Amino acid sequence: MTAEYNHTKLKRMEVTIIGAGLAGTEAALQLSKRNIQVNLYEMRPQKGTGAHKTSNCAEFVCSNSLGSYDKTNASGLLKHEMEILGGELIKIAYQCRVPAGSALAIDRELFSKTVTEKINSDKNINLIRQEITKIPKTPSIIASGPLTSPELANCIKELTRNDHLYFYDAIAPIIERDSINFEKAFYASRYDKGEASYINCPMNKEEYEKFYDILINAPKIELKDFEKNAKFFESCLPIEVLASRGIDTLRFGPMKPVGLIDKRTGTENYAVVQLRQDNSAKTLYNLVGFQTNLKWGSQKELLKSIPGLENANIVRYGVMHRNTFINSPQILNSYLQVKNQSNIFFAGQITGTEGYTESIATGLLAGINMSRYIEGKALLSLPKETMLGALINYITDEMHDKFQPINSNWGIMPQIELPKKERKNKKLKAKLMAERSINVLKSVCS
Questions:
Q1: What is the CATH number of the domain that holds 85?
Q2: Whole-structure pTM value
Q3: Per-residue pLDDT tens over the stretch 327-380
Q4: Beta strands of 54-192 (E only): which ranges?
Q5: Residues 185, 308 contacting (CB under 8 angstroms)
Q6: What is d(CA 254, CA 231) in angstroms, rounded to the nearest whole number?
Q7: How does DSSP classify residue 100?
Q8: How far apart are CA 269 and CA 307, in angstroms?
Q9: 299: domain range?
Q10: What is the residue-wise DSSP string for 351-405?
């Protein structure tokens, strides 16, 4: 579905992109393959973010998983849509994947290195290691991410005439595989789905209660004054925040034991801690759902209380950082274009989309639409029957009273009514919605 919109073709085919993260690099590659020159600005390594560890483009800073690649999963459908739209980073992600059952997990170091090399070797992309503190007057895509510098954030506030919002994100610890005790830990994927690629540390009731007691009494890193009223994104809550909701909250969340059977014992445990492969060499594993802001000494005590991790070698402790995002419903249209300044687009988590896959997807759409803007073509607005179209529709819906970041999910799409006897069949509904999305998107792209 394209807009009834046109623009006089610009004389100079050049675009500025701020931020060489997942969204910015995808947008740059989309513009390049349409023979449009790009100046891609990245402030690292001259200026750090507090969460990034390298100066590479498209660095994964939290989990190394992009979520499911099954098209009957909301995130998986979004990946299929990106492939149909000609996404570049999704191709690299599959090239750099590591075993993770039905999830697309990647070797984060290999992925970012591969993306950086592709950007550096592209004749149409000029990667400039410099902080941008003012919004350029030239056609620009702002993809500075959730860790946008305060100076640029203030400029965005002036540009949009709207306060930017914020929430807080936490990162999970990473440990060395060789320090795991496999007399207690075991490999399995939930319900034996896919490869047995997760490491699982089982707990009985007594072990879980000891773990829980350490967790709820552990000291946290003290927040600065301006951070005291922290807002957390619900799907990325620190484990200590989840635990504060009740002793069994974790057992129905990241430590859910259902479908994880240790075949050596044949029993289902009281709780299970899962670890996911973090690199291709299978030497590093991250703790699934263990984002945290505990002090490092407390993290060490907590992790070593987990059966199988008594001698764990922690190579990265969890940290918490501030995430910035704009009030997209008031600022952006469905093309990811600023309503009152047509030569500026936004992409990535700064728009209020949460998740790696979502960041790449918005970078893809922003890149396509910027190229159409440059070439004087009608801009592309995707139908709500597609996952990306539904996601963009959600974040740009002016009816939002209190806008908060969101992932891809089935609830944001137009629903399909099933016959009465099938209404509780969620798998069938997801399958039909996925098929509808792919058919609609293919017709748009034809």
A1: 3.50.50.60
A2: 0.78
A3: 999 999 999 999 989 999 999 999 999 889 999 999 999 999 999 999 999 999
A4: 65-68, 97-98, 103-106, 125-129, 140-142, 165-170, 174-176, 186-187
A5: yes
A6: 20
A7: -
A8: 12
A9: 174-318
A10: GTB-SHHHHHHHHHHHHHHHHHHHHTPPPB---TTSHHHHHHHHHT-TT-SS---
